[in-house]
Specification:
The chain is of the alpha/beta class. It is 25% helix and 22% strand. The two termini are 29 Å apart.
């Protein structure tokens, strides 16, 4: 099979690229996705994420990866859920629409990535977005990605906001203006048009499904990429197996191969193809095609720690007779109107806070959830309650993604190196203290029954450290492993071309030089919007 462009990975970036590159009807585009169609009820109904995220008892649209043992987390292996379907992780995430801070992108430009500052990227955020509130100088009103106010946030979430306000945190109506400090409600990537109101608006639903009938666009699901093909230093195609089995199938790219498999899989495919650190490749018997030591390095992820309280209030998610009966009504109402608790993002309440007034921008993010959250919903508890996640926005620790085997079917060795830098632990402790102060506030008193994990006894830094090392884990934002830049460890240049080879780009969260101060889904789509213009010569 011969195409102009072959895109590997149908996630948040890949769907954008498939749409934008195939706008030129004279250009033939092939999108390869290892997972399925990503259009089931589990994906479309937001609350059904609780069935996909844990990977138990079935793996639904989820790779269900894990890290290597983490010394900073008492030797535990971390869980790494990643989307495996058209839409990628946007098919299984909490739908939160967050761009990050202006300073994040300006910092990329200061590192030598010209054209990646906030002002340069803002037009792409606007181009992507169809905001329920309408368009203005900071928001788009006609893009493919539908962004909505939450359909029916719970009263407890509004009381969370009030509790934070009583501690002098300012209320914020819009967390996407470049300065996020404050507390409020997240906007979400959710349909607001009448036909699909209340459904998840994944990257596939926004960008791909509406254009699937284009004759110049071929989408192949169940396509497990194994290796890139080359002629000399030029990438010419991709070898894959249907559903990971059977004979190898080769698709050829006349112009470019584009890797959009995410921060964990894109570096793995480069390494399997002989591009990476020569010493690491040789350990697995892989011939070095091009030495590029930065491949798989610079892994950054948001470490998350959760506080949780049991509650006698049943007007949220939980396991019990009253709530279960009520939930049936919510499901029926969602099917009819799109408005009910079935449309929840779970993480309804937002806060971006500074752990020190001396900081130039918030360094922690809170996700207030209307359920008891324990080990990524892999541990369920009878009853009801609420939780609040705390993560450090700009981790100092740097990890890696390396091969665990030369077998493409084997998951890579993922090492986020959580808490390797002591500054991360210090921030997490401060953030936990601040969060407990909010949750112990008077507006939430009527919901609190009993603290769930014993943190009510945490008084000293050592107490908090023990809790964090025992339970903290990712909040699902890996990035940086094919970083963009001009230094010797950069994997791609500022036009996202892999350095030292031709006809090959990486377009996904792996190119971020530094992790942004928030959720990574929207920024990943904007990376792809800009990349599409660069590829087409429009930027």
């Amino acid at each position: 099979m011969q195409f102009d462009y072959v895109i590997v990975g149908g996630g948040s970036a890949g769907c954008v690229l498939a749409n934008r590159l195939s706008e030129d009807r004279n250009t033939r585009v092939c999108l390869l996705e290892a997972g399925g169609k990503g259009d089931s009820l589990f994906v479309r109904m937001p609350a059904a994420v609780v069935a996909m995220l844990p990977g138990r008892p079935l793996k639904l649209n989820n790779w269900c990866m894990e890290t290597v043992p983490q010394p900073g987390l008492n030797g535990r292996k971390g869980y790494q859920p990643r989307g495996k379907a058209l839409g990628g992780s946007s098919a299984i995430n909490a739908m939160l629409y967050v761009r990050g801070q202006r300073e994040d992108y300006d910092g990329w430009a200061e590192l030598g990535c010209a054209g990646w500052d906030w002002d340069s990227l803002l037009p792409y955020f606007l181009k992507s977005e169809n905001n329920e509130r309408g368009g203005d100088d900071l928001h788009g009103g006609a893009g493919p990605l539908q962004v909505s106010n939450q359909k029916e946030p719970r009263p407890i979430t509004r009381d969370f906001v009030e509790a934070a306000k009583q501690l002098q945190h300012r209320e914020v109506q819009d967390f996407n203006r470049g300065d996020n400090e404050g507390v409020g409600l997240y906007q979400v990537t959710q349909f607001h048009d009448p036909a699909k109101n209340g459904e998840r608006c994944s990257a596939a639903a926004a960008y791909l499904f509406p254009v699937m009938d284009r004759p110049n666009l071929t989408v192949v699901t169940g396509a497990h990429a194994r290796e890139l093909t080359f002629e000399g230093k030029r990438a010419t195609g991709v070898i894959y197996r249907k559903n990971g089995k059977g004979a190898d199938i080769t698709v050829r790219a006349g112009r470019e191969v584009i890797l959009s498999s995410g921060a964990l899989k894109s570096p793995q495919l480069l390494q399997l193809s002989g591009i990476g650190d020569p010493a690491e490749l040789k350990q697995h018997g892989i011939a070095v095609r091009h030495a590029l030591p930065g491949v798989g390095k610079n892994l950054q992820d948001h470490l998350d720690f959760t506080l949780a309280y049991r509650s006698k209030d049943t007007d949220n998610f939980g396991i019990g007779a009253v709530g279960s009966a009520r939930m049936l009504g919510h499901l029926l109402r969602w099917r009819k109107t799109g408005v009910s608790m079935a449309a929840t993002s779970f993480a309804e309440g937002a806060a971006f806070l500074k752990t020190s007034p001396d900081l130039d921008r918030p360094d922690i993010q809170l996700h207030f959830a209307i359920a008891l959250v324990d080990d990524h919903a892999r541990k369920l508890h009878y009853g009801y309650g609420f939780s609040c996640h705390i993560c450090k926005l700009r981790p100092e620790s740097r990890g890696s993604v390396t091969l665990s085997s030369a077998d493409p079917a084997t998951m890579p060795a993922i090492d986020p190196a959580f808490l390797a830098d002591p500054r991360d632990l210090d921030t997490m402790i401060k953030g936990a203290r601040m969060t407990r102060a909010i949750l112990e506030g008077e507006p939430l008193a009527k919901y609190r029954h009993k603290e769930m994990f014993g943190t009510e006894n945490a008084q000293t830094d050592a107490d908090w450290e023990a809790h964090i090392r025992a339970r903290a884990d990712t909040i699902y934002h890996p990035a940086g492993t094919c970083k963009m830049g001009t230094d010797d460890m950069a994997v791609v240049d500022p036009e996202l071309r892999v350095r030292g080879v031709e006809g090959l780009r990486v377009v996904d969260a792996s190119i971020m030089p530094n992790l942004i101060s928030g959720n990574t889904n929207s920024p990943t789509m904007v990376i792809a919007e800009k990349a599409a213009d660069m590829i087409r010569g429009l930027a």
